[in-house]
């Protein structure tokens, strides 16, 4: 990026998180284009984008909303693409978005789970791949409205493989901070550690909350569910040891205490995203979370019965909801 040029942002996957990021970047007069589908994108195109919640009230009027109308039109290239799609859609979305990325641009994974960074790097190159750890929560109560519900920590940005366009990475970090979204750039080791830290959190709570259909707080209050959570965590630490993944915790017991005492309280009323996906008849991200742990464990001959079982139960629940209720006895 030339020093005199401003970045051009493409939000590829304008769901809840993508809408918040795009709306806040627009607030500081950055060039932002939204790409997505469904009723939410149609609503923001016709009525504008409203953002509410813990970071205040904001409105992007419809006349200022720029929608990517034709993904196949490759005349315009974007310096920074924020890929904010479900892990199951990474391959398709990254392949499409790659055609819209400037030669010296960066594609930033704003996603949960394992394997996304490697997929993006395979499609756009390691020198254009940026990893992010996003740990604020958002939802879409009605189409056209994105609500920020919780923020557990800063957005972290890092280079998972090798140096990228540092000017663009620095500008993204500065733009997020200027817009009101806390953000930091971290080292390669720190961004991988942060990714696995979020995987620990998601694997411990998300599928269990979806299966039992209770908010996260209930999981921490119950002795039986705490035992399951502990088993999940112990298995993930065994996988991390085998893969030599650096984690900012002394061990499974240390993270278990951190989860219950620090991470759970502010998100006690949060509903699992997997449950929201299942109720909406969408596929969940189980394969990029507990399913990924099970696959990596098998490759390293590590037994992971807790993660295996949760993966199977979520898959059953996905199929049951998509097929409708069975015959009544």
Automatic annotation (TrEMBL):
Catalytic activity: (R)-pantoate + NAD(+) = 2-dehydropantoate + NADH + H(+); (R)-pantoate + NADP(+) = 2-dehydropantoate + NADPH + H(+)
Listed GO biological process terms: coenzyme A biosynthetic process; pantothenate biosynthetic process
Pathway connected to this protein: Cofactor biosynthesis; coenzyme A biosynthesis
GO molecular function terms noted in the UniProt entry: 2-dehydropantoate 2-reductase activity; NADP binding
Protein source organism: Methanothrix soehngenii (strain ATCC 5969 / DSM 3671 / JCM 10134 / NBRC 103675 / OCM 69 / GP-6)
Top-rank lineage group of the source organism: Archaea
Recorded name of the encoding gene: panE
The keyword Oxidoreductase is assigned to this record: yes
Known function: Catalyzes the NADPH-dependent reduction of ketopantoate into pantoic acid.
Name of the featured protein: 2-dehydropantoate 2-reductase
Family per similarity comment: Belongs to the ketopantoate reductase family.
GO cellular component terms, A-Z: cytoplasm
């Amino acid at each position: 990026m030339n020093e005199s040029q401003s970045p051009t942002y493409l939000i590829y996957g304008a769901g809840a998180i993508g809408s918040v990021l795009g709306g806040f970047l627009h607030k500081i007069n950055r060039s932002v284009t939204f790409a997505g589908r469904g009723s939410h994108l149609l609503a923001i195109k016709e009525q504008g984008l409203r953002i509410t919640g813990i970071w205040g009230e904001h409105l992007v009027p419809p006349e200022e909303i720029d929608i990517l109308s034709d993904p196949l039109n490759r005349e315009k290239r974007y310096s920074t693409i924020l890929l904010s799609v479900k892990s199951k859609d990474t391959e398709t979305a990254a392949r499409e978005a790659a055609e819209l990325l400037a030669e010296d641009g960066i594609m930033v994974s704003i996603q949960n789970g394992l394997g996304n960074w490697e997929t993006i790097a395979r499609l756009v190159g390691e020198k254009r791949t940026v990893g992010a750890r996003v740990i604020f929560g958002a939802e879409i109560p009605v189409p056209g409205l994105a609500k920020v519900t919780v923020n557990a920590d800063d957005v972290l940005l890092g280079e998972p493989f090798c140096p990228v366009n540092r000017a663009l990475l620095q500008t993204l970090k500065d733009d997020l901070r200027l817009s009101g979204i806390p953000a930091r750039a971290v080292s390669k080791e720190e961004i991988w550690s942060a990714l696995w830290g979020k995987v620990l959190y998601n694997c411990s709570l998300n599928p269990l909350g979806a299966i039992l259909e209770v908010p996260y707080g209930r999981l921490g209050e119950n002795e039986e569910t705490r035992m399951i959570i502990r088993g999940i965590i112990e298995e993930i630490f065994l996988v991390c040891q085998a893969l030599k993944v650096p984690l900012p915790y002394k061990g499974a017991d240390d993270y278990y205490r951190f989860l219950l005492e620090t991470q759970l309280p502010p998100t006690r009323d949060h509903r699992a995203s997997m449950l929201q996906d299942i109720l909406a008849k969408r596929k969940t991200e189980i394969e990029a979370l507990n399913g990924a742990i099970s696959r990596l464990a098998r490759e390293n001959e590590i037994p992971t019965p807790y993660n295996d079982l949760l993966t199977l139960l979520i898959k059953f629940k996905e199929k049951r909801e998509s097929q409708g209720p069975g015959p009544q006895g």
